[in-house]
Amino acid sequence: MSSLSYAVDGNAFNRVPRVTGDFWLIKLLAVTMGETAADYLAVNMGLGLVATSAIMTAVLIGALTLQFLQRRYVPWAYWTAVVMISVVGTLLTDNLTDNLGVPLQVSTIGFTIALALTFFIWWKKEGTLSIHSIFTARREGFYWLAILFTFALGTAVGDLIAEVFGLGYVMTGLIFLGIIAVIAIGHFNFGMNAILAFWLAYIFTRPLGASFGDLLSQPLEYGGLGFGTIYTSALFLGAIILTVMYMTATYEPETASDAEQDRF
């Protein structure tokens, strides 16, 4: 991965969004849609996990290519990549579980190690894990790799608790909501490092959103509300589009000069 800096008019611009309330809103919407869209393609459309994974991986490569071609953060390009990587991250765990028979406990440990190694190498190469300073190709590469592993890990952890431990979608969602609340309190009230808090919250919003998506889409006999994957995915896609439109209208660029305040 090149360390080439993206620059516009002599300024290096951060290529990912500021972490605000609408960021977390659309993150939850994206992960919920990732869960239901993967189920719709693989099960309802009858494509199966292998074909769905191949198609979505190709779409993800295209989305990331568009993202890397941008010279600064562009909401529609960035969030298209997030939605696609959410789907692929879900499918990665599902393939390990359903096609290869890998226990969710093993997947959880494996993706935890992969994510930790990604952060370690990122830190050794760049000296920071700050999401306020993604203005080189190498940093952005580490960023997207970390996000892929957070989605795969979040899927494994969520399925482990909801299905293997048998707690169901509602209880699983409440558990992860509580964990995120603890992280927020730790950050805002007890000085937890901002970058550490961000990545922990990013991991746990995945199973929170997935639990909510499963609750809405799954049949009543499986503990869901029975709305189905088509209507649930369409509902969240519409909400994502509206939120991206709002983000585009209110976007303020973040340059390298004010990016290095949060180092970890």
Describe this structure in words.
The protein has eight helices and two strands. It has 264 residues and is mainly alpha-helical. Strands 1-2 form a two-stranded antiparallel sheet. A hairpin with a 2-residue loop joins strand 1 and strand 2 (11-12). Helix 3 (75-99) packs across helix 5 (137-164). The two termini are 21 Å apart. The relative contact order is 0.18.
- Strand order across the largest sheet: 1-2
- Shape annotation: globular
Find the count of extended strands (DSSP E, 2+ residues). Answer: 2
Measure the end-to-end span. 21 Å
Report the major sheet: 2 strands, antiparallel
Sheet-strand content, in percent, reads under 5%
Structural class: mainly alpha
The rounded Rg comes to 18 Å
Taking pLDDT < 50 over at least 5 consecutive residues as the criterion, the unreliable ranges are: 259-264
Total helical segments:
8
Strands, helices and their partners?
Layout lengths: L6 E2 L2 E2 L8 H24 L3 H22 L5 H25 L4 H23 L10 H28 L3 H23 L3 H24 L10 H23 L14
Antiparallel strand pairs: 1-2
Helix pairs in contact: 1-2, 1-3, 1-7, 1-8, 2-3, 3-5, 4-5, 5-6, 5-7, 6-7
Summarize the structure.
The protein is mainly α and 264 residues long.
Overview features:
single chain; 264 residues; mainly alpha; two-stranded antiparallel sheet; 8 helices; 2% strand; globular; disordered C terminus
